Predict the 3D structure of the following.
Amino acid sequence: SFLIVLSLFFILDAIWLTLTFQGLYAPKLGHLLSHSVRYEAAVIFYLIFGIGLYFFVVYPALHHQEPFLYI
């Protein structure tokens, strides 16, 4: 289930960035952006975020019978 979470997050984030980057992020953050993509940083971010998402959201939801355990 961790790989499913990681791949879904990556796909949804890629769609979000593709659709909103030019109109939302580039005008405000363009001067801060690098001219090239730093893939190492992206891989590290997605791994850390995916691990956090899995252990704090998905894993507790799959192993407890109460749907709103942490609300």
